[in-house]
Write a structure and sequence with these properties.
The chain is an alpha/beta fold. The chain is built from eleven helices and 18 strands. The protein folds into two domains: 203 residues, TIM Barrel (Alpha-Beta Barrel), CATH 3.20.20; 123 residues, Lyase, Ornithine Decarboxylase, Chain A, domain 1 (Beta Barrel), CATH 2.40.37.10. α10 packs across α11.
Length: 355
């Protein structure tokens, strides 16, 4: 490897975070959410690391599920978006997948396919993105039951559980309970935020995603999230150092101007690697474990950082963009985005190095 830009993935940290999710809800089963290439961490490697402890995995699409099956992952696989065609229903049945059903159209596709695929039936409790109304939930359940299709779980999804004081979350819990009370079904409600901050949402199945990768879904300190271990450390190296006199500018659009005689380091990572294009001056990085704030506009292949307070910085020194030293949420907040986007946005030209 001729470029030291890499995402170092700690699989043991992911196992520890999964264990934390299980310990917080010991009466629940825990399904590991590994959609979107395991939030950028590498779906196959994460599945292999968890397959002996996770009873099931959740992905977004049938294609993701098929990739896992081809790789020999035989754990139960839940497809969160379900499918939209009869052909996809048949494919799901042939590979022993479980489908989320969130519309009456999906019910009809299943019936038209004439296959038996276990399903989770999704209620819209307030997210208003995917899910059945209470009336349609009852219709779907009766149609599927009459056709001999197993409805395994009633599920829903939170809209604002990342706010520990969210009134909306309490309303969703009450709505879901009322709408599903007549059905003798196991339930799945809690995502990462639910597991960490909403014990009343712990049900027969919980679905941790973001927390598996060592990231807190909250903007405030939540005690249960403190033990999380960052699984990805994105790092690169300094490839050039130069002196910049007072009044001179750095980078495209001259967005950063030296207010004193300064030392600028160029780092081999840019927006083509997934580093956020709109990260402002001052966004934190670490050089040899010491702060080195971003200085200038992010380029396609490089960023520039202020090394003026670093007496010993040299070409080849390691730069941490986020990870064990800087939380990805901190970088995301500086760049006006969320950590989920940064993790999933690390591009394919950045090698994943596993330990």
């Amino acid at each position: 490897m001729h470029r030291k830009t890499e995402a170092c993935i700690n699989l043991e940290a992911i196992r520890a975070n999964f264990a934390l999710a299980c310990s917080l809800a010991p009466q629940s089963k825990t399904i590991a959410v590994i959609k979107a290439d395991a939030y950028g961490h590498g779906m196959l490697r994460v599945a292999e690391a968890l397959q002996d402890v996770a009873p099931a995995f959740a992905v977004a699409t049938v294609d993701e599920a098929l990739e896992l099956r081809r790789a020999g992952i035989d754990n139960a696989l839940l497809v969160l978006q379900g499918v939209t065609t009869s052909a996809a229903c048949k494919m799901a049945a042939s590979r022993h997948l479980t489908l989320v059903v969130h519309s009456l159209d999906q019910v009809e596709n299943l019936l038209a396919a004439r296959v038996s695929v276990p399903v989770w039936l999704k209620l819209d409790s307030g997210m208003h993105r995917l899910g059945l109304t209470p009336g349609d939930f009852a219709k779907a359940y009766k149609r599927l039951e009459a056709a001999g299709i197993e409805v395994q779980v009633a599920c829903t999804h939170f809209a604002g559980a990342d706010d520990p004081d969210s009134g909306t979350t309490q309303q969703q819990l009450e709505f879901f309970k009322a709408a599903t009370s007549e059905f003798d079904l196991p339930r799945s409600i809690a995502n990462s935020a639910g597991i960490l901050a909403w014990p009343k949402s712990h049900a027969e199945w919980n679905r941790p995603g973001y927390m598996l990768y060592g990231c807190s879904p909250f903007l405030v300190d939540v005690a249960t999230a403190r033990p999380l271990q960052a699984a990805m450390t994105l790092r690169s190296e300094i490839i050039a150092i130069r002196a910049v006199p007072t009044g001179e500018s750095v980078g495209y659009s001259a967005r950063w101007t030296a207010q004193r005689p300064s030392i600028i380091g160029t780092v081999a990572i840019g927006y083509a690697d997934g580093y956020p294009r709109h990260a402002p001056n001052g966004t934190p990085t670490l050089v040899n474990g010491k702060p080195a704030p971003l200085a200038g506009t992010v380029s396609m292949d490089a960023i520039t950082v202020d090394l003026t307070e670093h007496d010993d910085a040299a070409v080849g020194d390691i730069v941490e963009l986020w990870g064990t030293g800087i939380a990805v949420n901190e970088v995301a907040a500086a760049a006006g985005t969320i950590g989920y986007q940064l993790l999933t946005g690390v591009s394919s030209r950045v090698p994943r190095i596993y330990s």
